[in-house]
Amino acid sequence: MSTSFMQDPFFHWDLSEITRKGAKALKTAQIVGGIVATLLGLCLLFWPGKSLLVLTIILGIYFIIDAVVRIVSIFAISGMPGGWRVLNALTAVVMIIAAAIIFKNTGGSASFILLFTAIMIGVSWIFEGILSLTEAAGAFHSGWSIFSGIISILAGVVVIFSPITSTLMLITLAAVAMVILGIITLVRGITFPKVR
Question: What pTM was computed for the model?
């Protein structure tokens, strides 16, 4: 008898095995990540005409904060399935690499920075979508997890396949997606179930 990917014990959340401290850490990580993504997205919406340098710095900061939150959650949450630890670690590594390249090349070609940033945004959103969809298998607030996963994957694919079409369009898409995903992540954090 084979189990589906979504019910594989390597990815399945068992709330009875999560400590209160771990649940609080996960909830806090989602709330902080949601607030940061929403605020950065709003900044991008209100400053679309600013230089690409500002955009890359904001995204670099977002990547670093998100990577740190993911790394901390790997160690702070007991009961986190191994698959989640691996996916969070991989996503954090991708975000740290993206941030390092962004900060190293801020004075470089605007088109190169935009293209690279777009690809990293797309990849990170696809990873975030995969994480959200695997979370849905855990049975808590699965509707939000599925919705967030689908939106994140679709946004990632769109960004990867059309990064040069228009800088303004990309900035607006990134800002709107960050605001939407930030709000959804915030709601997921706020509605995270209490562990007894």
Answer: 0.46
